Amino acid sequence: MGRPPCCDKEGVKKGPWTPEEDIILVTYIQEHGPGNWRAVPTKTGLSRCSKSCRLRWTNYLRPGIKRGDFTEQEEKMIIHLQDLLGNRWAAIASYLPQRTDNDIKNYWNTHLKKKLKKLEIGNNSENNFGDEEFSATQRIPRGQWERRLQTDIQMAKKALTEALSPQKIASATFSASNPSNSNSVSSTKETARSFCYASSADNIARLLKGWMKNPIKSSRSSTSALTQNSFNNFVSVGNNDTASSSGTKGEVLYDTFESLFGFESLDSSNSEFSHQSLSPDATVLQDESKPEVGSEIMPFSLLEKWLLDEASCPEKVVLDCGDDHAQVF
DNA sequence: AAAAGCTCCAACCGCGTGTTT
DNA sequence: AAAACACGCGGTTGGAGCTTT
């Protein structure tokens, strides 16, 4: 017979997650590590289905997630990769280690689609490929399976090549994802993990910091307003003060979070990547941050280089899929 | 000032694939 | 081998916040 059911659908809570739930989930994963999602709702007491827990973790709480505006470079990569891979957001996300597939998908649907459409209209009226980075959409569509196959072959080849020089990979991957801090790269996997964890904990802490110190809604990119309100409600439980004046209680919770993540300073909120102040317990979380980074998805740096090279020489890109199957894009 | 329309994103849903029993 | 389920993915949606009228 099969497995037992993951969770019964009745009594399962839906909708936005509250910070309280987030804390419970993060605490549990810190202790037990991610995975075995089926057990999470029962063991944590969360009235959420396992799927929802996993989604919340992977899309929001997981270490290594960068939020906020996409950079021009990220935008370019998404456009290129979308053209190559189609709407395979998870695959695309694997080349943007700090972004979730959901984020990329949303960004594509809300921003890039429109942008491309605009440019397409512009190009049609003028028959002028003004911006080479978007010219991909002008090409005659190929069979998707063919592109996928070619891409996969190419990726495999590159991954293999890269795998032969692990040191190079570590530094390349690391510096690619953190160009501002390439000096501190020690090119070890542990360092990369610490980096990812710190980044994420920083995200969460920043999130809370925003709530605490900036009761006026700071940014939509942080979380939904409902979640924000829920947090304020949570903070002001047993306190008749308004949410905005719940500073002391909020600080207590904030401190709790701080200690949970072993933070010393949260004022690095503007720095995307903080290497310091990791508690030893954080190693559990470190293991989870986008496992592809520095391990499975080796060709990131190479692909990025290729993309950047293409940007400077956009006429054609040759994907060498074997001697007799070179494909010009 | 307020109503209407628009934008954006977190979360849900359903499906395909892989895994376990 | 087959059933039953978990997991992961991509598509879609609900609703809060923003902008325009």
From TrEMBL:
This is Uncharacterized protein. Keywords: DNA-binding, Nucleus, Repeat. Its main location: nucleus. It comes from Vicia faba. Gene3D superfamilies: Homeodomain-like. One of its GO terms (molecular function) is DNA binding. It is found in: Nucleus. Residues 9-61, 62-112 form the Myb-like domain. The keyword Nucleus applies. The keyword Nucleus applies. GO terms for cellular component: nucleus.
